[in-house]
Amino acid sequence: MVVVYSILGCPHCISAKQKLGEMKIPFTDVRLDLYPDVKETILEKSGMRTVPQIYFGSCLVGGNEALQKLVNRYGKDLAQYIDKQEVSEDPTEMPIIPDPSTAIAEPDPFGFQCEIDESYLLLMEMKEDGILKTHGSFFSKKKNAFSGKEFIAWAQKRKSLGEGDQSKSAV
Question: Which one is the CATH code of 2-114: 3.40.50.300, 3.30.1360.180, 2.120.10.30, 3.40.30.10?
């Protein structure tokens, strides 16, 4: 049994559910924004305030990033890996599947947030520093782009990378 706890509009939740769908792995999606009574229990159980939270049986896999790593590691054999995960006999250790009739009419997105996307944070820093500009020729212009030279100069300055410093990564 695979359970995905998610909230409406979370790109990481969408990605995780799409990947499971592509792999034809059945799952139950529990939107925490529709089941506020479940939120606190899930928080206590996992200690995580981010979604998605993905369970294989009674085993918390983690979020979308953890799922993608498992997909890369097991590929088509992921379904077999899931089947081998222990399912606890104790119902309190199993993921909670709320009764659909208890869903609230107005989604409540507060309390949980999407996983942090490091690429997004990097782009926001680049936007803040003004290196995202319009580039190109008269015939072809690209908005919100940057040249490799600009990126390297920015990374060296913003990320404290010196020329030839290979021990740190800008991204």
Answer: 3.40.30.10
